[in-house]
Please model this.
Amino acid sequence: MLSKPPGIEDIFPDRIGTRNRILEAAREQFRRYNFREIVIPVMEFTEVFVRGIGGETDIVTKEMFTFEDRGGRSLTLRPEGTAPVVRAYVENGEYNRLATCKLFYLGPMFRAERPQKGRLRQFNQFGAELFGSGDPYHDYEVIAMMDAIAKDAGINGYTLLVNSIGCSACRPDFVKALTAYYRGMKNLLCRDCAGRLEKNPLRLLDCKQESCQPLKKDSPKITSFLCPACKSHHDAVKKYLSGSAIAFTEDHLLVRGLDYYTRTTFEFVTAKLGGQNAFAAGGRYDNLVAEFGGKPTPAVGFAAGIERMELLVEGAVADEKGPDAYLVHTGGPALDRAVALCRELREAGFSADMDPADRGFKAQFKKADRENALLAIVIGEDELAAGTCTVKDLKSGDQEPVAAGGMLNYIKNKLGK
RNA sequence: GUGGCUGUAGUUCAAUGGUAGAGCCAUGGACUGUGGAUCCAUUCGUUGCGGGUUCGAAUCCCGUCAGCCACCCCA
Model:
């Protein structure tokens, strides 16, 4: 039997109710916040991600699905959405002339990681990017928007973490102090942290090793290194959040894995995702547009993992409703009538279904029940003789004969449509 | 990439090294034209795959593949 590749899943109808709840919540908030949809390609030239995400990051060095096209150019299945959106924004002369440009996207991402709970090789994200504003109000706006989406989707018990990682003016000082601090206790570090010290010192701060936890307590805090501009930006973001009653926790240990972030970083985290904890994350990236060859343009955005959010939605979301009507017939001329009526119902905008096979009434009613149909419409010998159909309300169990000519009106009435 | 656990019917799970089973689902019947409740019957298997040990392997051993979980990292 053929099977799907590891970490890639089929999503059957029983999951669609929950997903739609999440996606509808997202689309509705995007509408309220005046973000408009952009559809970006599922693959890009590899260079887009190397430049965008950072050549030394794990995503780029070991997690990308990369292959050559027939001309020998390197293509990569997108591992995230921000770099493609920035590329598209810079490349499009119309949209990058706007003072501010608010975009959202939706779709599958690909990372060649080992699958586990809340982590897939093909997973879906929605995300938003806001270009052209360095105002802390807009940091607040994207955070508030994601918060509203989570709440509307039915997710509770999460924490919003907020931090600032400074800018190119003040972060180097902090990194220097951090490196110096950890160098002093090099022999106490776990093996991973020893590597981080050389490769990406900021990540020392979110090591999960038990033995590394005490070391963090006295480590330098980014907040005390922020330059005046970054400090007032950070304070303003916090003030906006407090002013709108969005609960958050300032976490000076929060750093982000991708290279492009500046100033604000944030994460929506929960304890219910096993080894993973974030279901949405983002931040400000004021230098990325320029690095892509655009004119210097500040920007802020976030991305959210749809499958991770699915794991967090409380309570089962009811499946799609069943058909309005299920036709039950006795075959022969009754089947002909059923086929015709089924077609009329569909043309009139109702959902209707039937089984053409010659089965007993019991089996057909059982099927109607399993399909969660609202009405069963019986066409048998009695009905043929009388020129009627018997319509049974499957919720109440009541049934009555209806003249064949009056069916559409009767059902319209019955279902309130 | 590293590690741990698990692979038996469509699904959830049983079966001291000795005849592969049950619940649910599905299908049919009891009820010859009425679903959800009850009862009965029936279908579905080279026990993931390949080797080895043994008189005999679902069971023990080796390999391999897959899934889950964790590390790394990330949504």
Notes: The mean pLDDT of chain A is 91.
